[in-house]
Amino acid sequence: MTKVIHPLKPFYNTDSEILILGSMPSIKSRELNFYYMHPQNRFWTILECVFNEKIDNSIEAKKEFLKKHKIALWDTIKSCEIKGSSDSSIKNVKINNINKLLKDSNIKYIFTTGKKSYELYNKYIYPKTKISATYLYSPSSANCAISLEKIVENYQVINIHE
Question: Rounded to two decimals, what is the model's pTM?
Fold first, then answer.
């Protein structure tokens, strides 16, 4: 188990209306300094399918895509003990305070990717925000039991502007 302090700033701006919260960035995402950057993670492929739009592999292109669709990204966990990038190993969590993000944006909808994020949001964050979160399947390659098609169908709910 390794103690990890969340190294990434939340990605959002004043126009953001949709907040997608993961749990803790993977080792690869922490190395590359942006969200969902493990090559086997299906997050960006899912968004391409949901919005019927190709996203270039650069971080800058991903940021432009998120801005265009008014999507903010962050995580529920501020720090924890974790083995590798495995959500199921997470222990001793400290939770991110999303109040500043909510105050400085136009967030109307909150989604969580995976069971751990959903569970932590409901236990620690929802009582403060009173904004219900919608559960989305984990896009992690560790969640290979659920097909890409089924995950894309689950994520269609975020496409509120089209």
Answer: 0.94
